[in-house]
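Complex 372.
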Amino acid sequence: MIKIMSVFGTRPEAIKMAPLVKKLEADPEIESVVCVTAQHRSMLDQVLELFDINPDYDLDIMKPNQTLTMISANVLSGIEPVLLKEKPDMVLVHGDTTTTFITALACFYQQIPVGHVEAGLRTYDKYSPFPEEMNRLLVSRIAELYFAPTERNRQNLLREGVDASRIPVTGNTVIDALLDVAGRPYEFEDETLKNIDFENKRVITVTCHRRENLGEYMANIFNALADIAREFDDVEIVYPVHLNPKVRDAAAKYLGGLRNVHLIDPLSYQPFVNLQARSYFILTDSGGMQEEAPALGKPVLVVRRETERPEAIEAGTARLAGVERQSVYSMAKELLTDEASYLKMAHASNPYGDGHACERIVAEIKKYFEAV
Ligand code: UD1
Ligand code: UDP
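Predicted structure with uridine-diphosphate-N-acetylglucosamine bound:
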């Protein structure tokens, strides 16, 4: 038996690791152990419940308004006894959060090999996204196996000198999660969503939470959305607001009280996928939604200065809208008024995989242990 420990802590990590944990649990040659840091609490628990995952360990570290130092210190000290007790053959981490990097660091201290799921994404701007770009760079120095979602991600790692035999291209596990959940029958339970007229209104789904957007940029983005809401009567903006108090305060300040803007609590993944699928377009600074939108055939305006997911832009479904009020407003307006421009973006083209990424990752892990 190969003992594989999966460690994650935030909503997006959980969504993207859930289908992999399921595959690991089902494999007779693998003993699967799950440790959550709970860097997020309720937004993590929503995912664990949906995918029916019961973690073996829960570090429960989340604090309101936590700083990067607080997360780092608490994950590092919390994970060490778990690693010492379980002595896994490999630890899997995902992407670029502080949970991800600090777990990889703790594994390095114990000389436990790390498998990096969603490896090789880069903006090459160390402060944007912050701290994610540095987190993933540092994990890349520690990891043993690199599961690259796309060929471009693999090329990034090759340029940094990573051994080619350690970088299988697997597709992104988010597509595995998306296809699973989108395929389940579902009707909205949320009162706000039940009352939205998806047939006659154009719904814009919004999320915005990134640390580097907090402050001036977020104010610009929200002001642009308020401009759109006031100008277009047939538009309904639905924004499930991240639980970060700084984000919630800004959303309430700039968007509260507008008739056609609905600020609601974070949705569980199943209603959220259904909301995206029924939207006219999506406006977000999320990484994962840039991967989901092309698979759903929904135009996505990315409210960031850059993206580590250029595949979505090349596929034609995503556009970088920047973080200025005028640029965000005019790109949103274009999608609402220029049908040709809208139709050019609204087609399903999925550069992120076929929904079988998790199978490939499990096969690569077994291959690695056969060879060592
Ligand atoms: C984190 C990740 C980011 C990822 C994002 C996904 C880091 C540094 N950042 O950012 O890469 O894109 O998650 O959402 O790893 N909160 C709650 N309940 C929750 C979740 C969050 O109350 O279930 C509040 C808490 O006050 C917490 C704050 O949100 O302190 C911020 O959470 P944190 O994980 O530090 O940062 P995110 O912006 O969520
Ligand atoms: N998501 C969700 N409920 C919401 C908002 C987002 O389930 O209310 C999902 C979304 O579909 C995507 C993931 O959460 O899969 C993105 O997470 P987040 O925006 O927190 O992080 P990021 O993608 O920016 O790392």
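The mean pLDDT is 97.
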